[in-house]
Amino acid sequence: MDCLRCTVLMSMLGAVLSAPQQQYTTPIPILSQQQEVNADGSYKYSYATGNNIQVEETGFLKNAGIPEQEIQSAQGYFSYVDPDGVPVQLTYTADENGFVPQGAHLPTPPPTPEAILKALAFLATQPQQDYDEKGFPIGPAQPARFGRK
Q1: What is the mean pLDDT of residues 51-72?
Q2: What gap in Å lies between CA 24 and CA 91, rounded to an integer?
Q3: What is the distance, to the nearest Å, from the Cα of residue 45 to the centroid of all Cα atoms in its chain?
Q4: Measured CA distances, 121 to 7, 41, 117, 125, 127 (Å)
Q5: Cα(27)–Cα(47) distance, rounded to whole angstroms?
Q6: Which of 80, 42, 81, 83 is nearest to 60 (CA)?
Q7: Single pTM value for the model
Q8: Which residue in 34, 65, 89, 122 is deepest, having the highest Cβ count within 10 Å?
Q9: 74: closest CA among 53, 96, 104?
Q10: Pick from 35, 30, 53: nearest CA to 45
Q11: Strand partners, 62
């Protein structure tokens, strides 16, 4: 009988301890929010929160009415305060050139090495070869000279 009581007690204890722990967090208030969507494909939205997040974006349809050339274009910004208390602001555009962010917090690439610049300049002087959809050269292949005359 003691084994049965122990099993029941352990089962009840396991059920109580495995209950999900819910932590209450204070909701962040939305201080302002605006949305505008137009029939021509343009839009604008913005919002600001109580924890210093601000967002704004506008967009429109480039080449509207030409299905093969229609491009959704957007530009906007967002800002917030990072966990260290530093304000962060990012502006961006997104269009046929992709997503282009700008911000002081973004890393910058190192300068291109001189050897790479020379190689790119050399490659630009070489004749271009056309390739088919499988990646094979079209027409007679040009022999590579590799610096020989």
Answers
A1: 89
A2: 34
A3: 19
A4: 79, 43, 6, 7, 13
A5: 16
A6: 42
A7: 0.58
A8: 89
A9: 96
A10: 35
A11: 71
DSSP per residue, the chain: -HHHHHHHHHHHHHHHHTSPP----PPPPEEEEEEEE-TTS-EEEEEEETTS-EEEEEEEEETTT-TTT-EEEEEEEEEEE-TTS-EEEEEEEEETTEEEEE-TTS--PPPPPHHHHHHHHHHHHSPP--B-TTSPBPSSPPPP-TT--
CA distance to 45, 47, 71, 80, per residue, from 33 (Å): 8, 4, 26, 16
* 25 and 40 Cβ atoms separated by less than 8 Å: no
pLDDT at 69 over 90: no
Any idea where the domains of the chain sit in the sequence? 25-102
